[in-house]
Amino acid sequence: xxxxxxxxxxxxxxxxxxxxxxxxxxxxxxxxxxxxxxxxxxxxxxxxxxxxxxxxxxxxxxxxxxxxxxxxxxxxxxxxxxxxxxxxxxxxxxxxxxxxxxxxxxxxxxxxxxxxxxxxxxxxxxxxxxxxxxxxxxxxxxxxxxxxxxxxxxxxxxxxxxxxxxxxxxxxxxxxxxxxxxxxxxxxxxxxxxxxxxxxxxxxxxxxxxxxxxxxxxxxxxxxxxxxxxxxxxxxxxxxxxxxxxxxxxxxxxxxxxxxxxxxxxxxxxxxxxxxxxxxxxxxxxxxxxxxxxxxxxxxxxxxxxxxxxxxxxxxxxxxxxxxxxxxxxxxxxxxxxxxxxxxxxxxxxxxxxxxxxxxxxxxxxxxxxxxxxxxxxxxxxxxxxxxxxxxxxxxxxxxxxxxxxxxxxxxxxxxxxxxxxxxxxxxxxxxxxxxxxxxxxxxxxxxxxxxxxxxxxxxxxxxxxxxxxxxxxxxxxxxxxxxxxxxxxxxxxxxxxxxxxxxxxxxxxxxxxxxxxxxxxxxxxxxxxxxxxxxxxxxxxxxxxxxxxxxxxxxxxxxxxxxxxxxxxxxxxxxxxxxxxxxxxxxxxxxxxxxxxxxxxxxxxxxxxxxxxxxxxxxxxxxxxxxxxxxxxxxxxxxxxxxxxxxxxxxxxxxxxxxxxxxxxxxxxxxxxx
Length: 675
Description:
Elements (H helix, E strand, L loop, with lengths): L7 H7 L14 H4 L23 H12 L5 H16 L1 H14 L8 H10 L11 E4 L10 H20 L7 E3 L2 H4 L2 H9 L5 H6 L3 E3 L11 E4 L6 E4 L5 E6 L2 E6 L10 H16 L16 H11 L3 H12 L4 E4 L13 H8 L12 E5 L5 E5 L6 H17 L19 E3 L6 H19 L1 E8 L4 H6 L4 H17 L5 E6 L8 E4 L4 H10 L9 H23 L5 H13 L11 H6 L4 E5 L5 E5 L8 E7 L4 E8 L5 H31 L1
Parallel strand pairs: 6-8, 8-9, 13-15, 15-17
Antiparallel strand pairs: 1-10, 1-16, 2-3, 4-5, 6-7, 7-11, 9-10, 12-18, 13-14, 17-18
């Protein structure tokens, strides 16, 4: 999970076309655009199906099944009665109103606006609570790893992605069941002649599933603006600059010319170098305004209003910061360097850190340490993982395939070019200074209270899962359940996010990995030795867990979970001014939504680590992945609230036990076949 290097076979495949920037015509299509798709970017958008509203009866059934393992039998019986009253009474009324509202808004999904509102009305600080972290795999070539070199190439690749998106040239996002057969020119030719109104359904015939791309427009030029009660997303898609931060000092740097073309590599490199040179002659920011973006949102809204009461500050903040295409944070050596033997300090710093060199309100922020380690921190309200991972993957692969500058590339000097490189010098009064100091102290206290533990487990990987016919995600989620049960002797609300981007304006649905099947397996494993089932019987239980896990995942992806439906029904009651139904006051509803174990998987080889904060004070934030040579997890928790080290040690034990069961059962099958 923390090996930042690229293996040689992967690199040779990706970077076969590597070439130097001096051979590139900067205004040519090849430099200006990442892709030139045969199909327009939003080709499938019009024909995407709408997110279905599940049947009320099915939602009630799924809710009862999901809460059963975390309730006592008596609690479950009480819950069944309340759910039945809801289904036959107020639930029917709310469901009808939700359907009516959905029918009147066919351009979107029933969950889209309530989900935006949920994010934007929450007053909690963004770091740890919402903004996640993705750490990028490194570059194996030393000449491309230095900070300013890596930053320049990432800026150019990001702009190539953005320009392709704006020109409708970016490949549509399509999930191919069998990429070798369908991710082909032949597939694209067939799609190009399909009637646009039915293009999605034509694609289904190839077992290729187009995904919603409505969130992509907010990747760049977007900021979350703090307001009292509810924040606001503002977009500036025509911007030509980025925000660069260095030791808390802020700079606006033009990256597109007056005609909107990407500046040449030597120009971008020169402007970045001028920032580093200028900053080396300055003190670190005495009042680092970025710290304010870690504040409770109403507090930040009030501070911001005061800050922009000064017209010059208002102009700088709105024109240069809010409107920037994205944020680039160039950390210094004082912020720490990556240590593979102990990656936690760097990960904690990039996830939330001391925040003097961050602007958490930007849609995306590229973080680059002094030794070139790169990560992405993104504000979550505008979109979900599908859009972010697509961007992340594309810029990484583009940077490997065709880097535009190296350590030896000459640059165009930009010292004194105040038109294209602009230090942002705000006028700071005592009230703003006091707010920054208070925000810094609060964030430091929170970050100091954050505990982070990690595990790399090499006996479980993609190869072993394939060899034994196992579902990787199911096995890891089952391991989380066993780990928690044997460490803390109970079962708790567990969250796994599942994308519903197969539908127009889909967001996410919750998959609930804690089931009666996983509970039965955990109890069987933890029986005394004399009562233990055979390895074959336990393997059969693992297979049952996997089947149920797979079915729940499929239902969630198809918009047939229960969490978002109940969320929307509750939201409808609020909109209609109706009393909150009793279902939402039950212990079952509260317990299933108190996500002690909140999980997110990182299914791409460009991400070497990912992390986010716990969603409840006594819970765990679990970023996990299963790769070619290991399974890994990073677990965050709050000190004196949850025992992260105990959980990670129990997780290793759970992996051991499950792998042993699989190996024993396989050995027994081989012996039986031999006989």
